[in-house]
Write a structure and sequence with these properties.
The chain is an alpha+beta fold. Among the domains are: about 90 residues, Photosynthetic Reaction Center, subunit H, domain 2 (Photosynthetic Reaction Center, Chain H, domain 2); about 70 residues, SH3 type barrels (Roll), CATH 2.30.30. The chain has 2 helices and 15 strands. Strands 1, 9, 10, 11, 12, 13, 14 and 15 form an 8-stranded mixed sheet that branches. The protein has a 7-stranded mixed sheet with strand order 6-7-2-3-4-5-8. The protein starts with a strand and ends in a 40-residue tail after the last helix. This is Photosystem reaction center subunit H. It holds the Pfam family PRC.
Length: about 240
Amino acid sequence: MKPSRKYLSLPIISLQEGQQIGYVKSLILDASAKALAAIVVDRKGFFKDQRIIPYSKVVSVGEDAITIDKESHVEKTSSLPELLDLVKEKLTIIGTKMVTETGKTLGIAEEYYVDPETGKITHIEISGGKIEGFLSGKAWISAEYITTIGHDVIISQKDSENTLTVADKGLSESFKKLMHSTSNLASETTHTISSYFKKDKVRTVSPPDSDKELVIFPESDPIPPVNQTISEIPIPKEPLG
């Protein structure tokens, strides 16, 4: 799916002539079909009057350009009566209030998304109103729940607020995953530090250097234990006088 803003200013290239014939100036909407009807070409000096390309003539919508078969598919608005009324209507989605059939305000349309192959609108992004998101307060509603796209209001089906995909749900889940991974990292770090200090307490004795000669001291008489009795040696008395 492609946001409508991504279409704007894309170069338009004709495949047969191999020429760039202009840029996307704006998009023409068909409210009843909930789809793009045509692309308005930015003339850039090529044409004196407004030219459009019916969306059915678009070959491909890429990341960097839009392609059509040949330059002749760029036509004057006056030569396409089936699109003339839509061009004059100048219908827009962005900035329009969205309300349910029961009169509940969902918010303001901020963007809409298009299937590049068919031109069908798939989702509308809304914000504000009753939507309170985690960070940005945005939500998305599928185009299948849209009943009317008007100049002042976009109408959605009854209870369609229950079908919204709210941004904060996805963000809060990501936040939980982030907290979980952070907790695991802290636990692993604590375990590593603990293991380091445990290893530091164990003393290691290096083996003797094999190149050095060992010096052996002679054995000395053992020191008698404290409780062992030492025999008295008689000391001769010197004669008096």
